[in-house]
UniProtKB/TrEMBL annotation:
This is CCD43 protein. Residues 72-101, 125-163 are annotated as: Disordered. It comes from Nothocercus nigrocapillus. Residues 151-163 have a biased composition (Basic residues). It comes from the Eukaryota. Residues 72-87 have a biased composition (Acidic residues). Residues 125-150 have a biased composition (Basic and acidic residues). The lineage of its organism: Eukaryota, Metazoa, Chordata, Craniata, Vertebrata. InterPro entries: CCDC43 (IPR037666).
Length: 163
């Protein structure tokens, strides 16, 4: 009986190993099939070229011509070596491109300067609030210290009277 149990166990293990090999082959075949079907679908997809109208071509040509005429000095009139505190946003109005030909106005520099100015103002306000809060806290601490001293003084005087 023990020999039969051992034989049966060996046979079960062999059958299981064979089924695992077959399953692995089937999975590989399924993966290969999925990949090939995906590749076929991608090959079928055709990107249609975008049709550009004559009006759009003219608009694009006008924009390119406009930007070809604008130089760095016209676009950014102030040198980049100036500290931001020196011009502090007041020169942001000088950023306006004075060209009548321009279809668009570049406001990037103005936006950045205004954002920095706003950030500095917010930081300044926060610092001022913190400074005031610290001052109030110091006053409270000072009053509390005085009160503790007075209580201690009263307690010692009361103890001396009892003697």
């Amino acid at each position: 009986e023990e020999d039969l149990v051992g034989d049966v166990c060996r046979e079960v293990v062999e059958k299981w190993a064979e089924s695992q090999i077959v399953d692995a082959k089937e999975k590989k075949e399924d993966e290969v099939q999925a990949i090939t079907s995906m590749m076929e679908k991608q090959a079928r997809i055709v990107v249609k070229p975008r049709e550009v109208s004559q009006e759009e071509k003219q608009r694009k040509a006008a924009l390119l011509a406009q930007y070809a005429n604008v130089t760095d000095e016209e676009e950014y009139p102030f040198p980049s070596t100036i500290d931001e505190d020196e011009h502090d946003g007041s020169s942001a109005t000088a950023v306006n491109i004075g060209s009548e030909k321009s279809l668009f106005r570049n406001t990037n520099v103005e936006d950045v300067l205004n954002a920095r100015k706003l950030e500095r103002e917010l930081l300044r306000d926060e610092f001022q609030k913190k400074k005031e809060q610290d001052k109030l806290q110091r006053e409270k601490d000072k009053l509390a210290k005085q009160e503790r001293k007075e209580k201690e003084k009263k307690r010692t005087q009361k103890g001396e009277r009892k003697r």
